[in-house]
Amino acid sequence: MRKLWILLVFVLGVIFTGSGCGFINGWKLDYGRARAHIEESNLAERGKEFVGKKVVVRGVVKQIDFSEEENPKIILSHGTECQFGKMKVMAERIKVGDSVMISGILVKGKDEKLFLNPAMNRDPKAPFKP
Question: In this structure, are residues 13 and 23 in contact, taking their beta carbons and an 8 Å threshold?
Fold first, then answer.
C-alpha cells in the first residue's frame, strides 16, 4: 500500500512538473483569493509587493490586441497589459472604453513593467475594495 502511494505521488509530481507553471497559475486564478484590489492608476506603486500573486485591477479599456492568435491582450488606460491566453471569447466580449475589473496573476516583465498573465474578466458587480 505504501509503495502505491509513493508511486501515485511520483506520477502526480511528474504531471505537474511537465505541465509547467501554467497549471499552478491557472489554479491560482480559478480558486485562489485575490491578495489585493488595486486601481490601475496605482498599480505601478502598489503592485510590486504582489508580484506572483492573484490581484484584481480596475481600469478602463484603452486597446484590444488580437495580433497574437494564442494570446489576446487587453490594454488598460495606463498601459497595463492583461493577457487572456486561451480565453479569447472572454476577451472578445470586452469593448474599448469599458470600465472593467480584471483578475489575474501579477507578473513583472523584463523592463520592470507589471502585467497580468493569465488574466480574466470579472463580474463588474462584484465587490471591489482597494
Answer: no
CB atoms within 10 A of CB 113: 13
Which grid cell is 83?
Answer: 493577457
Residues 6+ apart with CB under 8 A from 52: 105, 106, 107
Q: Identity (one letter) of the amino acid at 103?
A: S
Task: Determine the 3-state secondary structure of 79 from DSSP.
Answer: coil
Look-up: residue for cell 500573486?
53
Kindly report, residue by residue over 64-114, the tens digit of the pLDDT.
999 887 889 999 999 899 998 888 888 889 999 999 999 888 888 877 788
Q: Name the residue type at position 126.
A: A
Place of cell 495580433: 67
Pairing verdict, β 54-65 and 36-39: parallel
* Total-model pTM: 0.75
Is the previous residue joined to 118 through a cis bond, with omega within 30 degrees of 0? Answer: yes
Peptide bond into 130 cis (omega under 30): no
Cα separation values, 96 from 57, 64, 76, 77, Å: 16, 7, 9, 10
